[in-house]
UniProtKB/TrEMBL annotation:
One of its GO terms (molecular function) is ATP binding. The keyword Transmembrane does not apply. This is ABC transporter ATP-binding protein. It comes from Polaromonas jejuensis. InterPro entries: AAA+_ATPase (IPR003593), ABC_AA/LPS_Transport (IPR051120), ABC_transporter-like_ATP-bd (IPR003439), ABC_transporter-like_CS (IPR017871), BCA_ABC_TP_C (IPR032823), P-loop_NTPase (IPR027417). Residues 6-252 form the ABC transporter domain. Keywords: ATP-binding, Cell membrane, Membrane, Nucleotide-binding, Transport. Gene3D superfamilies: P-loop containing nucleotide triphosphate hydrolases. The keyword Transport applies.
Amino acid sequence: MTQSLLKVSDLKKAYGAIQAVGGVSFEVMPGEIFGVIGPNGSGKTTMFNSVLGQISPDAGSIELNGKNITGLSPLALSRQGVGRTFQTLQVFGKMTVRDNLIVAAQEHKGSMLSRMFAPGDSGLGGKADALIDQFRIRHVADKLAGTLSYGQQKLVDIAMAFMAEPDLVLLDEPCAGVNPSLVGGISSLLKELNQNPKFGRKSSFVVIEHNMDFVMDLCHRIMVMVEGRVLAIGTPAEIRGNKEVLDAYLGN
């Protein structure tokens, strides 16, 4: 039986009397695109940030490739093979697109001493160029990121998450604020990264997103959260046909 890439077991997080996450469990398999949906206040972001080391869960465990990563810092998780994007852009506006990608991966490139004597791009220029081509942003590679449209910056932001060749990328609302004309392009790009990987393996994602059409089209399986708990996990077709989900979320 294939070992799960990410395994979250009975995760809990409370703020005073409010149980933001109340015993959430799920698994993400290698090569899977796993979606997380739910109404505002359902605990999605708290769960996400607990997995990513932004906050410490009160209870439960998180495993990556069978290794317990519960409580590790975001930097330590990054070095364990977990990439992420945020709801708000994390690009460096006064740097070129290419330099943004290089900076995103420099901390993973050897020791501080080895980087001091490495080429100006720390030997990461070739990898950056490959992702620039894959993300179809060659025409803006030498422009300052801050001069790009929001949608173009979003693509740069996602590309930065792949520079360290992560095993798993967690995408927090990749379509938020993006022109609807670009949403399909982001979906196609993520499918391409999943099916035709540059690094010899399929890319795996966990995606939080409010755009239901995007999630239903992109994800292999979807988890629905309501009031800090898992209401359902299934394929898009199973989620569409789940009456509890329709009543609690999709129907609203």
